[in-house]
Design brief:
Layout: H1 7-21, E1 33-40, E2 45-52, E3 57-63, H2 72-94
Length: about 100
């Protein structure tokens, strides 16, 4: 998976999605909507689409349909869940006094 969907490319895609979604008034507040970004995979562009409400990530879709069957295509579902879980936890921590 590291060669197919490199951390650098996926992080770049996520950063673009997060920047568009974050409100300028507070780090943990989102601007509701659906945002997409793309990064080059091995065979094609990999598109990440994230949907937000005011306080959370409601959906993450990783489209790697033109990537290698059984490798890049298989990784998309797991990657979408990992993104949603990881970013959701990061947002929750914004509301907790540490």
């Amino acid at each position: 998976m590291s060669r197919l969907l490199s951390r650098k490319n996926i992080l770049a895609v996520l950063a673009v999605c997060a920047v568009f979604a974050m409100s300028s008034s507070a780090l943990a507040d989102y601007k509701p909507g659906t945002y997409s970004a793309e990064a080059q995979g091995i065979e094609s562009m990999v598109k990440v689409t994230m949907t937000f409400n005011e306080t959370s990530i409601t959906d993450v879709v990783v489209d790697s349909s033109n990537e290698t069957p059984g490798i890049g295509q298989a990784a998309a579902e797991d990657l979408a869940k990992l993104i949603k879980d990881a970013m959701g936890e990061a947002v929750k921590r914004q509301y907790i006094d540490i």
